[in-house]
Design goal:
21% strand; alpha+beta; two-stranded antiparallel sheet; 13 strands; single chain; 41% helix; globular; Arc Repressor Mutant, subunit A
């Protein structure tokens, strides 16, 4: 009996010791804070539907292919986060349109970069694709990530980063969300940025890419920077290699160790993260300011990135862009 009591006390001491162990911390990051809100594939598919004019529950369900309960849950989250507001269009029974707020509209540039990346790199063929027209200049155009000073297209190779006034440490919150790539998928040809949404919707992958874009390429470096469990990090690195975002390169043979380099496909995802960081800096930066400052090497100015028209270089505003869905002859 005394042994049993002693073991119980020992277990309690061990549990107390584990509870008092400090939580791992990661660098403050507007991208990570933004992903806490929109880094979820069903959320992105719902936003896609709303960006393309589907504001009622039934039309969002038809466009996204998601289950009713999941749509209800994500619409509630987006409304609570201030990205959507409900607008009644019938009273009995009460039915609502879901309308983007200014905060929700602020993600428009990110959505256009997701669309751009999907068109360039998606492996699945779409039955239809959007043709965008910039009403300001009247041209059919492609959205481009541009520097606010020199108007040149930005790429990861042309941008430097440095710590900003809001840099610090934060405790990451890894809530359990079922990943889209493990779930029943809606018909891929009916969605416009499915693969881009899968990538952005996996927040672990987003944090890994943040590390690699800041030149942390080895497993232990990424592990320390992200505070992701090692088994999850291994899984996500494997997935990013499998999907062609990263390529492994051996740097030690005994034992065998790898560093992970961005492919051209991975490098071209950079504008998505830049626009997401810009949105995160607007709504989730610390009072001291942005955690990270970017600088455009081509002109030497701090990077004030925007999504602009490929024809006239003017910023693309939602009200100034029209679209039509055209059949994809290659599908």
């Amino acid at each position: 009996m005394s042994v049993g009591k002693a073991l119980t006390i020992a277990d309690m001491i061990a549990e107390s010791s584990r509870a008092e162990k400090p939580r791992p911390m990661i660098r403050t990051c507007s991208i990570w804070r933004a992903l806490e809100v929109v880094g979820d594939t069903p959320t992105l598919l719902i936003l896609e539907a709303i960006w393309f004019g589907q504001r009622r529950f039934d039309s969002i369900r038809k466009n996204s292919g998601l289950q009713k309960a999941l749509i209800s849950n994500r619409l509630k989250r987006l409304t609570e986060a201030g990205l959507l507001r409900k607008q009644a269009y019938t009273d009995s029974p009460p039915r609502f349109n879901y309308v983007l707020t200014d905060k929700g509209l602020g993600l428009y540039w990110t959505s256009l970069m997701l669309l751009r990346w999907e068109k360039r790199w998606a492996t699945g063929k779409k039955a239809v694709e959007p043709r965008l027209t910039h009403k300001t200049c009247g041209h059919v155009m492609t959205p481009e990530p541009l520097c606010g000073h020199c108007k040149e297209v930005i790429s990861a190779r042309d941008v430097l980063w440095e710590e900003g006034p809001g840099v610090g440490l934060m405790a990451p919150i890894y809530s359990r969300r079922r990943q889209r790539r493990d779930a029943d998928q809606p018909a891929r040809e009916s969605l416009l940025f499915t693969e881009a949404a899968e990538l952005m919707g996996d927040r672990w992958a987003g944090l890994i890419l943040r590390s690699i874009f800041t030149h942390l390429r080895k497993f232990d470096e990424i592990l320390k920077d992200t505070a992701i469990a090692s088994n999850i990090l291994s899984d996500r690195l494997g997935w990013l290699v499998e999907t062609g975002i990263l390529t492994p390169r051996i740097y030690q043979t005994n034992p065998e160790r790898f560093e992970y380099l961005l492919t051209e496909k991975g490098l071209d995802y950079y504008p998505v993260l830049v626009m997401l960081q810009k949105w995160g800096d607007t709504y989730y930066a610390s009072p001291e300011g942005a955690p990270v400052i970017l600088r455009h090497k081509l002109c030497g100015h701090p990077l004030d990135a925007y999504t602009g028209c490929s024809e006239c270089k003017e910023p693309l505003m939602p009200q100034d862009v029209s679209y039509e869905l055209v059949e994809n002859s290659d599908a």
